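Sequence only, no structure available. Ideas?
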Amino acid sequence: MFVTNTDTNEMLKAILNSIDEGIHVIDQDGITIYYNKIAADHDGLDVSDVIGKPLLNVFPSLSAETSTLIKVMKTGNPIFNQHQTYRNLKGKLIDTVNTTIPIIVSGSLIGSVEIAKDMSRVRDLSLKLMDLQAKMDDRSNKALEVKDNHVSYEFDHILTCSPEVESIIKQGKKVSKTTSPVFVYGETGTGKELLVQAIHNHSPRRNRPFISQNCAAIPASLLESILFGTVKGSFTGAEEREGFFELAHGGTLFLDEIQTLPMDLQAKLLRVLEDGIIRRVGSNKSFSTDVRIIAATNENPSSLLSKNLLRPDLYYRLNVVSFHLPPLRSRRTDIPLLVDHFVSMYNFRFNKLVSGTDKQASEILKHYNWPGNIRELRHAVEAAMNMTDEIISPDHLPLHIKPDRSENDGFFSGALKTKVENYEAEMIAKVLNESGRNVKQTAKMLQMPRQTLQYKITKYNL
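Reply:
I predicted one. Tokens follow.
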């Protein structure tokens, strides 16, 4: 059987019309040359309303700056996973995730194609599920409202190409299957809660409560009643109230900055870890709970122990399984990956089409020391996204990140703390190598306590 070009084109159209994504194609003049029925349904139009017509005439709310199809057709740069929420001409709220790519034939850019996946049904189902969950939660009207009983992150949300972090993910998946306490150490902004939520969400406890509490955020005088609950009349104004251990029964309780707990409260926490028995403040009744404890600190545990901020017996009980999240400066290969993720995220939030970072900005971001780690990187990208609509250049970056080199000095003009830390790390590395990696000898040469040196070796990833 002989198949003509016309037959092939008709077959191709039939295939494209049968898939479950909207497809919109324009040529180099901005004229729509293909537009399937799914795309028409998204926009509340008929296919005939769009085919053969200039894109901006059919969609007057768009411009050459805001249309992804025109932008990709002009620049030749693809735009992946762009979220879009809008009301179509029939008043229906539409959520889509769009990927727009250039069409290149024989080396020439001749147009662009956009593929839109409708997420409205997913959104509607999620809202219904949330409503159902709210109706089923008989704790929602209690005086002590726990807002953290929601787990957003899974292991797939940890973006990395670092072998060290990939190993942590692999180990975390194994640990999630058990009930052992977990101790997480990492500088501020390294993603401790993301890892902890992923462990919970990958565990058999995933459908039970997850409660997170930063111990440093609550006055010490209130922590005991918040953790263990109270009985009415136990002190002035006290009501019958569940504590976090009761609320987290069957699930996970995450205690961040645990070293800020008073020593007497650390002793009570140790007893709960040992026997699972709790008693509300002011009560003479005890009862058992089934709660997995995960604790975290932003300082090296050995330093906390030497400062008497953390009870050794509590640390040893919590440190059954431990993870050290490396700082961003020691996993610099992850920076481009994270930057792309944050650009995409803020494109959606700010309704922008920023394509990424130019070469100079990428180099600056890659070589900055990031004392605030991933959180600081995220805020830096957010700041830059406020300053541009096209591409992030050095001019759009926060001032403290941009290098400022003088004629006689190649030193970055970042924060004084960053300069001091960079110099300190270089000095320790130099002396450490001169001493043949002998920590005791290095500490003597640098005239600092050995424990302090060990902490700094870990801190600077030396």
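The mean pLDDT is 83.
Hope that gets you unstuck.
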